[in-house]
């Protein structure tokens, strides 16, 4: 799944809005005892960033920002101070109510990670792959798991370090995902061709080549961040005279949230016009996943050239400086994705081999499962046969018991006896037995009474 760039920009801003140089604000030892109003301890709102510890990160930063001293330090810290851990040390002066909340957040995060690892281990237990312990440990890099109950300076240091590191690798991971997507697409196309007869295959191949050609046939795409590219936006989107182009005015128009920086989202919005020259969602030949990859590459290219302090933001001064460079006036064409090889034939083969292995493993597993099923069916049949035999035996025993009881009790009641015998199979044997015994006793008493009466009279 492609991760939303907007969320990345949010996270980048979160850490990188941490501002400029640290001023030496006097710190008093009593600061942690200052009263923090209860309403400031409400749980902060969470938002997606794309990092797996997104919620934890956001909540920690938002709670820290509730502390006036830390907020001030955060506002005035620069990137180097943050990297060197100077900001993390300010945690010692955060109000104790907030520290308690941070401890809670950490405990929740630890529980979430434990659950996550458990699920992963359970899943891997059944698979043919070996459990990768190093990969599992990576899940804990953003906190100190040795001390699971307290949020300490080391936890903040680790959180900042992991976030920065993960953000730096975000684009790389994105490109890898895209490469996989393209390889899979080509693999599926080839598989589809395999199932066709010669004539249909030729037609399909021809159609594919036509689509490729159609996609590659587009107007010149300007180099992102070049004068030509910005002037097209200025003229066609902003409706301004290209001769009156002014970098500062351009910056103010397109800094849509007015924070004085171009974030990644604002930068990417500038490339929409160029991308529309190549991609149209109504066309069969244009893949919109490729368009998003193209957009990301454009943004990455501009950031590499313009963002000189590498804070993932373009300040006005960085932007103005870039417009003064010689590259700004170059009007060479941007090389679009279809002109580049996203993957090699070797990488495609490696993917197909891994698929074949996976299929093989699944088949082996399926055969094993089938065998287990057959064995279970066989055991079930045996059990059913045993059960039927037992029921039969039980019926015979009950019948014998009944006959013995009734013959001992009352031999004269044979008609009633048969009736009881018939009932035996339908009702509780004990109940029938009792009923038959009662009938026997009643008949015997009557015969005995009749004999007495005959003798007396
Ligand atoms: Ca902005
Ligand atoms: Ca910058």
Automatic annotation (TrEMBL):
Single Gene Ontology MF annotation: calcium ion binding
Q: What is its main location?
A: cytoplasm
The way this protein sits in the membrane is described as: Peripheral membrane protein
Annotated InterPro entries: EF-hand-dom_pair (IPR011992), EF_Hand_1_Ca_BS (IPR018247), EF_hand_dom (IPR002048), NUCB1_N (IPR057576), Nucleobindin (IPR040250)
Basic and acidic residues: compositionally biased ranges: 192-212
Q: Where is this chain's protein located in or outside the cell?
A: Cytoplasm; Golgi apparatus; Membrane; Secreted
Residue ranges annotated as coiled coil are 341-400
Q: Which keywords describe this protein according to UniProt?
A: Calcium, Coiled coil, Cytoplasm, DNA-binding, Golgi apparatus, Guanine-nucleotide releasing factor, Membrane, Metal-binding, Phosphoprotein, Repeat, Secreted, Signal
Listed under GO cellular component are: endoplasmic reticulum-Golgi intermediate compartment; extracellular exosome; Golgi apparatus; membrane
- Which superkingdom, per the lineage? Eukaryota
Signal peptide start and end residues: 1-24
Q: Show the segment(s) annotated as Disordered.
A: 192-226
Residues in EF-hand domain copies: 242-277, 294-329
Looking at the keywords, is Kinase present?
Answer: no
One Pfam family for this entry, by name? NUCB1_N
Q: Which family does it belong to?
A: Belongs to the nucleobindin family.
**Protein's name according to its UniProt entry:** Nucleobindin 2
According to its UniProt entry, this protein's organism is: Cynoglossus semilaevis (Tongue sole)
Instruction: Name the gene that codes for it.
Output: NUCB2
